[in-house]
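Quick one: structure for this chain?
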Amino acid sequence: MTHSGQAAPQVVLSLVAAFLWQAGSLWERHEDENRSSLSREQRLFTDFMQLVSRYATQEHNIDFYARRLFISSRYMSTLVKQVSGKAAKQWIDDAIVTRIKVELRHTGKSAAQIADEMNFPNPSFFCKYFKRLTGTTTQRYREGKE
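Got it. Here's what it folds into:
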């Protein structure tokens, strides 16, 4: 592999990160403008989604997000489901899986390295988690055989 071939995955990852940062910035600006017209539940959901986009790869537990929003985990779970129709844990899992997919396809990092960076207890748990949520192994996904 040439030097430029080795840099390509990192360039893609950097571009994706820059795009997500820009999109997040625009979203925050948009949300600030519309914040006054939102109900308390909608504001809490928006705040939850911002926290998920910022912390999901490191914080997998609903309790973390509820504490940051100064509400109980039970109330947050109910509120997120009511506002979005989707469970809070599912939002967190979706964000994590999306990041894992980017890492697997666009970096040469091992599953163990990704697991460590994303705060999983061990590579075995990480691989089982990915397979449970996607129906495929990390290796098959990386190879494009999903």
